[in-house]
Design goal:
mainly alpha, Growth Hormone, Chain: A, transmembrane, MFS_dom
Length: about 400
């Protein structure tokens, strides 16, 4: 396939992915080292992260439904960005237990909008035939934004301390708002954005009929159910691994917290950028099945390396493997959801449903990892997280074997 020319709105969507990368996830791995600097213990940090994860999990499905029914997706993203900036400033000014928990819960709820909203914009701009390539571009620009922000945060944090990370987040938020403003609303097909092709779209402007619940969405598609279970197990092992890696090194006093945390991000993002671009091109021709399989296989190996090599240098292989897994899944997950829900008018609700179920694993992961690390050591915690994530690969392979004709799902 020849070189594709991007429209102006597609270019600004790439820019949105670049700037939103640092905004939607809040402080990310910097949260742990920030709270440790204020006297928090590993288990307390884990509990706060889990509370935020549960809140985001519960909000994702309703937000996906909201995106499906809305013709104001740009306004949704702009409002979410502003709220995230406000919550980050509040955490910076008042890092007390109550304020910290409240801001992280708010950030998780608001941040849960970004996945369905950006998916809706992408589908509405390029349609299902161009989605695989666009998802690859989205992920590549998202990781490029994370890489840039992490490098700047590491340098600024080393020079001026962790408060510089907060300032950087504010600047990235302003950039995200500018990109949202430059995306042209008339370029967005709101029927395609919710998973209805031109032949199914109606000329009405009323909101589409909404699914009654997350269970209604999941029970309507076997492929979607198996994907949700797979992602839940994957994130049970994945979500806590990077924060714990940073906390382990800081606890052993082997590295500067800002610089090391930034290095963990930079290594992974350098891998994710080319992996995401290649994944989009591969999926366009061959489907998503092998992308998911390779991504799931990378995480148990990542946990084993982190558990067996208690050195700051372990960050290189650990985060290279993270880059492979995240780069592939960032493209494959929304692509699989779109193919499973195509024609339903509820693609973003379907994505919200899968993200809600995977959020169960992600929300439990920090509490589980923090509890084990606090009582049995970081090496044991890494081993347990890697073992938990290995079950995701088993479930995915067994699901494909049990239904080869639907291949399946993932192969499509």
């Amino acid at each position: 396939m020849g070189k594709q020319t991007l429209s102006g709105s597609q270019r600004w969507l790439c820019g949105l992915n670049f700037f939103a990368s640092d905004v939607r996830d809040g402080l990310g791995p910097f949260l742990g080292v920030f709270l440790m600097a204020h006297g928090w213990q590993a288990d307390g940090i884990g509990y706060v992260m889990s509370a935020a994860g549960i809140a985001g999990m519960l909000a994702t499905m309703p937000l996906g439904v909201w995106v499906d029914g809305s013709r104001y997706k740009r306004a949704q993203l702009a409002g979410a960005t502003v709220l995230l900036m406000v919550s980050t400033l509040a955490l910076w000014a008042f890092p007390s237990p109550i304020v910290t928990t409240a801001t992280q819960v708010l950030a998780a709820v608001v941040g849960a909008l970004f996945g369905p909203a950006i998916m809706g914009l992408s589908l509405g701009l390029v349609g299902p035939q161009g989605l695989a390539r666009q998802l690859g571009r989205n992920e590549a620009w998202n990781h490029a934004g994370n890489l840039t922000a992490a490098a700047l945060a590491g340098a600024a944090g080393y020079r001026w301390g962790l408060p510089a990370v907060f300032v950087l987040m504010m600047l990235m938020g302003v950039g995200a708002l500018f990109c949202v403003w430059r995306i042209r609303d008339q370029d967005i097909d709101h029927d395609m954005a919710r998973g209805m092709g031109p032949t199914e779209a109606t000329d009405q402007t009323d909101e589409p009929a909404q699914p009654r619940s997350i269970w209604r969405v999941l029970t309507g598609s076997r492929d979607l159910r198996m994907l949700a279970i797979t992602m839940m197990l994957f994130h049970l092992g994945n979500a806590a691994m990077l924060p714990l890696l940073g906390q382990a090194v800081v606890a052993r006093s082997r590295a500067d917290p800002s610089a090391f945390t930034a290095a963990t991000i930079v290594v992974a993002q350098l891998v994710m950028i080319p992996v995401a671009l290649l994944a989009g091109r591969y999926a366009e021709r061959h489907g998503y099945g092998w992308l998911v399989t390779v991504a799931l296989a990378a995480l148990p190996l990542r946990g084993a390396v982190a558990a067996l090599w208690p050195s700051p240098w372990a960050v290189i292989p650990v985060q290279v493997l993270d880059g492979v897994g995240a780069g592939l899944l960032g493209v494959a997950l929304p692509g699989l959801v779109e193919r499973s829900m195509r024609g339903s008018g509820h693609v973003n609700a379907g994505l919200g449903a899968v993200m809600t179920i995977q959020g169960i694993g992600a929300s439990l992961s920090p509490a589980l990892g923090g509890w084990v690390a606090h009582r049995f050591g970081y090496g044991t915690a890494f081993g347990l997280l890697g073992a938990a994530s290995a079950s995701a690969l088993v479930v995915f392979v067994l699901a494909k074997m049990a239904a080869p004709s639907r291949g399946a799902t993932a192969a499509a």
